[in-house]
Amino acid sequence: xxxxxxxxxxxxxxxxxxxxxxxxxxxxxxxxxxxxxxxxxxxxxxxxxxxxxxxxxxxxxxxxxxxxxxxxxxxxxxxxxxxxxxxxxxxxxxxxxxxxxxxxxxxxxxxxxxxxxxxxxxxxxxxxxxxxxxxxxxxxxxxxxxxxxxxxxxxxxxxxxxxxxxxxxxxxxxxxxxxxxxxxxxxxxxxxxxxxxxxxxxxxxxxxxxxxxxxxxx
Length: 218
Ligand code: DX5
Ligand code: ZN
Description:
218 residues, TIM Barrel, binds D-xylitol-5-phosphate
């Protein structure tokens, strides 16, 4: 297992100064960018033009989390723009393998995400076509919600398959990760922890990243 990674989510940042908000977490492993279309989730955030601007203003690898319908149409654009990892939702497409293939062909790592209520089992077989599995630990759509510990069963399952060499995928968790919840997620076998409010609502976001990473390591 790789050392724990922390991916601050700019959903909880000030959208009027995203460049400065990225600089405020300079020690982060990935910068998590939540793209919401107001259809797949009942909230609307930002799209490709904003991601293109962010890519120009930060050296932190960008982790795009697409909470959108029709990811096959939009996901490759984020990869072409230079995002490091592009994740879309399994619930949003009938052909996740094709979408993942297009993301990789466009030059990014491909991620598959599942909502808290979505079973992992039907997707285990196709995970070998992905670089990242993003396990949602809140209903996608909003920051600041409470962690749903039941999803850790899915993390444990994937962790054991990765540890036994049957799968090669980075396990990422998103939603409600903070000082109170990160240790149980780390114990279950998460590699990469998304944290929005726990980082950007902190007085010192960079220090919050370091302290979350230390907690995940212990
Ligand atoms: C929610 C987003 C998350 C969100 C997490 O749909 O996918 O990335 O920013 O926010 P917190 O860490 O506050 O739960
Ligand atoms: Zn997210």
